Each structure stands twice: as C-alpha cells, then as structure tokens.
C-alpha cells in the first residue's frame, strides 16, 4: 500500500507540473483547497483537517498529526462573452474541463509535540477562456467594421510550494511561517480583425512562465474545547518578468489619449505581474463534539497586482498621419478591484470514521461594469457558490474525501453603452486521498 501511495504521489506531482489552466472563482483564486476545503467553501482558517491547511493557515499542521494528502479537482466552468447588444455574437467558449491537483505532507519533529514541519505543492489560482473567432463590437474608428472578428484566449496558472515550520506555543496557541516558492504562467490573446484597420489587440500567444517568492504567516488559538480562532496572512508574491519574443504588430493597442495607437516593433517584451497579498480571519465553534460550525472573512488585494499591468519593450507611437514617437512601456488597464470574501460552513460527524459537510461562499466581483471591455478574455466575475462534501476513514491509515461545488452564474454588463456582457459560473468535483502515519 505504501508503494501504491508513492506511485500516486508521483502521478499527482507530474499532473501538477503539466495541468491545464485552473479556472478559479474568488477572482482568479480557488475558494477552497482540496476536497476538505472545497466541501467547506473555504471556511477553514480556524478548522484545519488535512495538509491543505499549509495554504489556508500553516499553523494548522500542529493539529492534524503526521499525514500526507493528494487532491484532484475537475472543474467545468461556464464562461460567456456576449456582444449581441451591438450586433455581434455570444458564446460559452470551447474548453469544457480543467484539472487542479495538489499534494501535501506534514509531520512532527522530535518527541515533545511542539515543533512541526510541512511541505505542499498546490494550484492556488488561475484563469482560462477560449472564445471565437466570433463577431464582436467594432473598434469605433472611422470606416471600421461594425462587427469585426474577435479572437479571445487566456491561460493563467499559479502554483505555490510551501515549505513550512510551525510551533505549538502551548496547548491552546500555535504559530507558523511558510516560505512561498511560486511558479506562474500566462498566455493571452484579445485581438480584433478589421477589414480596414487589420489586426489590433494583444497577441501574446506563447505560454511563458516565471518563478517568484513570498511568505505566509498563520496563527491558531483555541479558547476552549468549543471555540477556536484562526488568522492567516500571505504577502504579495514577488514574481519575475514573463518574457515573450513577439513579432512586429503583435501588440497594437489604442493610446490613452484616444487619438493615437502604439505598435510593438518586435523583439523581447516582458510582463510584470506579481501575485496579490491577502489575509483571512476565521472562527470555528463546536456546540457539541460531533458538530462543527465555521465562518471566515478574507480580503484579497487584487488592485496591487491586477489593476494596471505593464508590458515593457519597444513601441512606436502612431498618430493619424504616421509615427509620432517611441516608448518602452504600455500599461494594460484591467482594473481589478480588491474583494471581500465571506464563507460559512457546517460539518457533522455521522459516525466514528465519517463526516459530512456543506458550505456557502460569497464574494465581490473583481471586475466592475466600467472594466468589462478590458476583461472579455478574463471574465473573473464569479460571486456566489455552495458546496457539499464528505470524508470517510478507510481503516487506521487511509482517508478519502469528496466535494461538489456549484458556482452560480454571475453576469456583468459594460457601463460604456456597448451592452457587452461577461459571465462566469460552473461546477467542480474534487477527490482527495490521505494517509496518516
């Protein structure tokens, strides 16, 4: 059995490193990590259960014992872009499923039950869409097509590795810290083909990645057998530039003055995209030994990373009659906003070795009405979801979990009068396998 788990662990790691783009739901971040976190709708900061706590609150490894866990999530998103109000088309896109894997390990150091270490690799964020070719809104220039052809594609993935050390100060209070070693990959196309003006937009068609780093801090305080508080802080993750070798014209975008444009002259271009900081507070209440009720509040500071994103490289500025100068940077105004997330969950132990759970998660949309047109390839507008889950012990060593999440469709319409709409919803199914030793 140990050899079987070793082989499954290797398979999980390979899947992590080759997975399709994750498609997440609090902005571009997963609402819950693993089958337990998904089943609780992310309300787990004060209620650790397995090694997914390495991400949600690293202090939780002082409470879960020596164990390792693998999780596989299969997510089926429903994303839609709708240009029909301006005479164009609408589509739900072409990609039906994405996989989100993760693996974690934690254990006690020494015999005094106060020092613990852990390590995990998790897909914690991502985004993906594949729309078109389709007829969309016109570019608004004199003589331009009313409904030119749009092609929209995005793939964003974020993996986090979490070497962690945790200290149990006493039986009630634990603290922990993690060094975050990250990998991020981005591919983006948001282009418009007009019969008079040719191809305009962003055509960064290759998937380029970069490494980065940050840290996470966590704390867990048990007031008594009934009430536990948890806190988690993850720093802004400092990511390296993603470098793209682009042909001339691969970036052809309107200038901020509305009367000119910028064009890439070709060569190496770099996108600087850090991962946002965030913090969470949670409470867990056990009114009886078999019943657990949890609530979390999380704040994700998307604006510090995804409000404006710089593309660095050589550009020529084009006026109505030709080139009017050069520049070495263009700023994309995605306009993502900071969001608040509220999550609640309940778990009931139905037998000595079995638990059932349910949860609800509500967040703001990262994209407002004023920024819909800048995010038609990145429809990060999910708001509300509910979940169901269960865990069963298989003997003294093994444990298996299952979770189902339903994210209700949410639509945001552009406030610029175009009527353009973007929509996000979907469902996911997560299976987890753990071993306690």
Written description of the protein model:
The protein is mainly beta. It has a single domain (2-436), classed as Porin (Beta Barrel). It has four helices and 23 strands. It has a 23-stranded antiparallel beta sheet that branches. It is elongated, with a radius of gyration of 23 Å. Mean pLDDT is 88; it is low at 1-23.
| Cα gyration radius (Å) | 23 Å
Low-confidence segments: 1-23
CATH superfamily descriptor: Outer membrane protein transport protein (OMPP1/FadL/TodX)
The averaged pLDDT comes out at 88
Question: How many angstroms does the end-to-end distance come to?
Answer: 13 Å
How many DSSP H or I helices? 4
The CATH first-level class comes to Mainly Beta
Q: Helical content, roughly?
A: under 10%
Instruction: Give the helices and strands as they follow along the chain.
Output: HHHEEEEEEEEEEEEEEEEHEEEEEEE
Number of strands: 23
- The fraction of residues in strands falls at over 45%
What is the count of distinct domains? 1
| CATH architecture assignment | Beta Barrel
Q: What are the SSEs and their pairings?
A:
Layout: H1 2-18, H2 34-39, H3 53-56, E1 67-82, E2 90-91, E3 98-109, E4 115-135, E5 149-161, E6 164-168, E7 173-194, E8 198-222, E9 227-234, E10 238-239, E11 242-246, E12 251-254, E13 261-264, E14 267-272, E15 278-288, E16 291-300, H4 303-306, E17 308-319, E18 322-333, E19 339-351, E20 354-363, E21 384-394, E22 398-413, E23 421-436
Antiparallel strand pairs: 1-2, 1-3, 1-23, 3-4, 4-5, 4-6, 5-7, 6-7, 7-8, 8-9, 8-10, 8-12, 9-15, 11-14, 12-13, 13-17, 14-17, 15-16, 16-19, 17-18, 19-20, 20-21, 21-22, 22-23
């Amino acid at each position: 059995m140990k050899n079987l788990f070793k082989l499954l662990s290797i398979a999980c790691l390979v899947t992590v490193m080759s997975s399709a783009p994750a498609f997440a739901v609090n902005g571009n971040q997963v609402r819950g990590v693993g089958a337990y976190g998904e089943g609780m709708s992310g309300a787990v900061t004060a209620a650790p259960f397995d090694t997914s706590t390495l991400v949600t609150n690293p202090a939780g490894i002082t409470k879960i014992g020596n164990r390792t866990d693998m999780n596989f999530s299969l997510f089926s998103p429903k994303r839609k872009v709708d240009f029909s109000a301006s005479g164009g088309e609408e589509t739900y896109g072409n990609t039906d499923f994405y996989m989100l894997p993760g693996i974690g390990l934690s254990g006690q150091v020494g015999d005094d039950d106060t020092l613990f270490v852990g390590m995990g690799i998790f897909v914690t964020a991502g985004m993906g869409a594949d729309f078109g070719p389709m007829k969309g809104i016109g570019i608004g220039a004199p003589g331009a097509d009313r409904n030119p052809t749009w092609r929209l594609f995005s793939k964003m993935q974020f993996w986090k590795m979490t070497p962690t050390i945790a200290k149990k100060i006493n039986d009630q209070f634990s603290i922990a810290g993690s060094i975050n070693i990250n990998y991020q990959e981005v591919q983006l196309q948001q282009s418009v083909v007009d019969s008079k003006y040719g191809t305009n937009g962003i055509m960064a068609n290759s998937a380029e990645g970069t490494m980065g780093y940050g840290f996470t801090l966590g704390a867990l305080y048990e007031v008594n057998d009934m009430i536990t508080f948890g806190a988690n802080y993850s720093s802004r993750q400092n990511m390296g530039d993603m470098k793209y070798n682009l042909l001339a014209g691969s970036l052809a975008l309107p200038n901020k003055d509305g009367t000119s444009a910028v064009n890439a002259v070709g060569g190496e271009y770099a996108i600087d995209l850090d991962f946002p900081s965030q913090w969470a507070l949670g409470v867990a209440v056990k009114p009886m030994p078999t019943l657990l009720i949890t609530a979390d509040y999380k704040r994700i500071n998307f604006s510090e990373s995804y409000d404006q994103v710089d593309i660095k490289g050589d550009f020529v500025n084009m006026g109505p009659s030709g080139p009017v100068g050069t520049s070495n940077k263009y700023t994309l105004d995605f306009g993502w906003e900071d969001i608040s997330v509220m999550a609640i969950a309940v778990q009931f132990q139905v037998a000595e070795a079995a638990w059932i759970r349910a949860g609800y998660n509500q967040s703001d949309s990262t994209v407002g009405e004023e920024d819909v047109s800048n995010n038609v390839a990145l429809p990060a507008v999910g708001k509300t979801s509910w979940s169901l889950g269960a865990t069963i012990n298989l003997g003294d060593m093994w444990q298996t979990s299952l979770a189902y999440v339903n994210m209700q469709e949410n639509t945001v319409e552009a406030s610029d009068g175009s009527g353009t709409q973007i929509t996000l919803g979907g469902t996911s199914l997560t299976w987890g396998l753990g071993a306690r030793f």
